[in-house]
Amino acid sequence: MRVFVTGGTGHSGSYIVPELIAAGHEVTGLARSDQAAAALSAIGAKVHRGDLTDLPGLTAAASQFDGVVHVAHRQDLLFSGGIDAVAAAEVPIVLAYGEPLAGTGKPLVVAGSIGSPGQETLGRPATEQDPALEVRDEHRGTLHARNIVETTAIGLAERGVRSSVVRIANIAHSTTDRAGFLPTLIALAKEKGFAGYPGDGANLWNAVHIRDAASLFRLALEKGPAGRYWHAVNDEGITFREISEAIGARLGCPR
């Protein structure tokens, strides 16, 4: 399969691309810089120069491939407009892929979050049958999807796209992660001289090695039916205290 991947040089993408290539797929990654292009070439992918802001360019690119894996996002908007601005920018991006894929049955796999079902699952584990949570916008008085990227991708199944969402665990770890939750906690412990946790540290976190998540992206691309959510989770209930104790033990600092 000829696959177009966005975010191929990020933490998730840098594992997804080799996973796809090892399975025999021909992968082309979106690159907006010479550095990104070199990184994609180094792991065996072809390069398509472009940018997430170029919606017609994304549509044209998607039309040339047998499937799309989208794990990139407009990180540049995070500090100025927060997650709402990032999500708002993602919707037209997903729809740009959907335009050439409509009616073809070709796959579109989009990265989501394990937290998207939200408080609707309070008291029980979230399942792959739980849709993204919808909440009321207090300021505008209208219903909107907190996870509009997920619902937009899933909605494309009604237009003949084999679309699905891989919800990544809260902690997606590997030795190459430099900006995730765990590296942040480790850096904080080094700065403060101890590995702390909130309250009694009993609140639970879920985790997955990003290599396992990459395998799930591949399987969703190859075999996943339209309109499905998939949960990339291995460890389902790690307490914050256990995480802090592990960090403290490794760093040799109090916890």
TrEMBL record:
| InterPro entries (alphabetical) | Epimerase_deHydtase, NAD(P)-bd_dom_sf, NAD(P)-dependent_oxidoreduct
* Signal peptide from the UniProt entry: none
Q: Which Pfam families match?
A: Epimerase (PF01370)
Every copy of the NAD-dependent epimerase/dehydratase domain together lies at: 3-228
Top-level taxon of origin: Bacteria
Q: PANTHER family from the xrefs?
A: NAD(P)-BINDING DOMAIN-CONTAINING PROTEIN-RELATED (PTHR48079:SF6), PROTEIN YEEZ (PTHR48079)
User: How is this protein named in the record?
Assistant: Dehydratase
Q: Native species of this protein?
A: Actinoplanes couchii
Q: What is the lineage of its organism?
A: Bacteria, Bacillati, Actinomycetota, Actinomycetes, Micromonosporales
